[in-house]
Amino acid sequence: MGATLLAREFNRRNSGPAITAHATRKWLQGEAIPAQGNLQDLASWLEVPAPWLRFGEPPRPPQAAESPPTPYVSEQAAKVAADFLRLGAQEQRVVESLIVLLLARSGTADVPSKPTPRRR
Fold first, then answer.
1. Nearest CA to 20 among 34, 3, 35, 33?
2. What does pTM read for this prediction?
3. Quick one: residue 30, left, alpha or beta (phi over 0 = left, psi -120 to 50 = alpha)?
4. How far apart are CA 89 and CA 86, in angstroms?
5. How many CA atoms lie within 13 Å of 98's alpha carbon, on the beta-carbon side?
6. CA distances (Å), 64 to each of 29, 51, 58, 68, in order?
7. Among 103, 99, 107, 104, which residue's Cα sits nearest to residue 115?
8. Is 25 exposed, middle or buried (0-12, 13-18, 19+ CB in 10 A)?
9. How far apart are CA 97 and CA 59, in angstroms?
10. CA torsion through residues 6, 8, 10, 16, sign
11. CA 4, CA 10: separation in Å to the nearest integer?
């Protein structure tokens, strides 16, 4: 869209003072920023957030202060976990004991002295 067409279409939609093609050319070339009221009108007309129009970035959604990052779990780990949950309570205790034993032998992690009892 050229500066002349932009000025004409903007003025058709805007109830405030008319703008010139010279002004819109400066907007398009990055030589000037529209006044706040015009910026709001442009954002409304173009259906974009005003901060994006002014700064080039959409507003970021607020982040929860206490939300921990979601850990990545491989497909294989998810399958093992799902299979583990399909086991009975006794079989789960055997698997937990085996994991504790293997970790203790490898010395790769701090492990509890015995598996946590599970209630069924």
1. 3
2. 0.46
3. left
4. 9
5. 7
6. 38, 22, 18, 9
7. 99
8. middle
9. 50
10. positive
11. 10
pLDDT of residue 21: 94
Token pair in block for residue 15: 């109830």
Domain spans of the chain? 3-55, 73-120
Q: What 3 state SS string does the chain have?
A: CCHHHHHHHHHHHCCCCCCCHHHHHHHHHCCCCCCHHHHHHHHHHHCCCHHHHHHCCCCCCCCCCCCCCCCCCCHHHHHHHHHHHHCCHHHHHHHHHHHHHHHHHHCCCCCCCCCCCCCC
**Phi, psi of 46, rounded to the nearest 5 degrees:** -85, -5
Q: Give the residue carrying structure tokens 């309570």.
A: 89
Residue 16 and residue 37 in contact, taking contact as beta carbons nearer than 8 Å? yes
For 29, the token pair is: 């070339």
Least confident of 2-6, 10-14, 67-71, 93-97: 67-71
